[in-house]
Design a protein that fits this description.
Elements lengths: L5 E6 L5 H16 L4 E6 H6 L11 E6 L18 H8 L3 H4 E8 L9 H10 L3 E6 L4 H15 L9
Parallel strand pairs: 1-2, 1-3, 3-4, 4-5
Helix pairs in contact: 1-6
The structure holds flavin mononucleotide.
Length: 162
Amino acid sequence: MGEKMKVSLVYISLSGNTESFVRRLSDYLLELHPDIEVEQIPIKDMVKEGQPFFEMANPFIAFLPTYLEGGNGVDNGDVEILTTDVADFIAYGDNASKCLGIVGSGNRNFNNQYCLTAKQYSERFGFPVLADFEMRGMLGDIKKVAGIIEDLYGIEKNESSF
Ligand SMILES: Cc1cc2nc3c(=O)[nH]c(=O)nc-3n(C[C@H](O)[C@H](O)[C@H](O)COP(=O)(O)O)c2cc1C
């Protein structure tokens, strides 16, 4: 048989919420589809360990929490802090063209700034915002994103997918 279908999840997580979501999403996808491979690419760890960026060999999904400097996201407060390594990774080589879309995370208490950085990346790089979730995300968020990933990668849905 051919190689396993590989789903790649590129993410950054400063306080662990996005990492938790990506881990639970990976577990969920693998339980539904034991025949696929799910690769997690933690950008913060790569940078901390001094690993050089590389060009992605296959399509990936990016997961990005919003961290902004003050403001209200309308007149001011749209300056990204802490997560810009993800933009650098996406801008590296041909990676932007391999990004199928971005999943934003944040906290609705930030009102207009909710998940703003994911929207900014979508505009800058020209890929869609696929979904958004708050904090660590709920099971419903995981199921929704798993369904989107099945569609984007052409993974055949099975009974448990619904
Ligand atoms: C300093 C700071 C600024 C933040 N700014 C925003 C914001 O502008 N919009 C938003 O939706 N969430 C904002 N958040 C909430 C985070 O995006 C949210 O807690 C997210 O789950 C963090 O993900 P992580 O734990 O993977 O780092 C902010 C959090 C902090 C600590």
